[in-house]
Amino acid sequence: MEVLPLTDSAGWVRARTCAVWALVAFAAGALVVPVLSGSPGPKVTALQKAGATVGNATVVGRPTSLERDLSEEVVRGYYADLVLSVPNGPGRLPVDGAYTHDRPREGATVEVLWSPDAPQLGGVVHARRDLHLLARPHWQAGADSATGRGALFGLIAVTVVGLLLGTVLTFTSGTEALQELAWSPLAQTVRAATTVGLYLAWLPMLTGHTPAPMVGLLASAGFLVVLLVHCFTSVRAVGKG
Prior knowledge:
Number of helices: 8
Radius of gyration: 25 Å
Helix content: 40-55%
Order of helices and strands: HHEEEEEHHHHHH
Low-confidence stretches: 1-6
Distance between the termini: 20 Å
């Protein structure tokens, strides 16, 4: 009985194929995290870069541009432009579009996200967002908020689907076909390295930072190309050899 070298054995071919699929599946799941989490917004991003902190502030003067947040005729909160007085900070910190559960009034206390080093940026008040988490950019797929739970579910769901798809395609393909259709060790190593590199390129988005638009675009487009090529070569190998 002829003993095949390790690189040609069926078990090794399928194992390394599944390993690359695992990388692609996780990277695909990670790509949906910033999409489901949403961008913190340019103002929050600027405050984060300037050393954001959270503190309690007092509303100074009468709120302007007051609007109600309605849901089926039920008032859920209020949007307004406020001027705040922050302890150990500026006496007049402008906040546009502040969101509060209660109708804002002069003298009321609100929680504000602001930067002591850049008070000219103003502040952010939003009663439905965890400002402490916004002050510290973090891994966005977690159970600390509704969007975080949604991102975590998306990460798990896409990764599991990718793993199942990869397993089915790998074990319904012949090992010779997998070897011939761009599944050589060198080709797989290049593909795995490319996938990891693209993942690192959009890693800032996974931790609450906003990368340069071109970086995010190239990373996302590059990964989609890798994913399509990976799926195409896998499907071509199904049922062969």
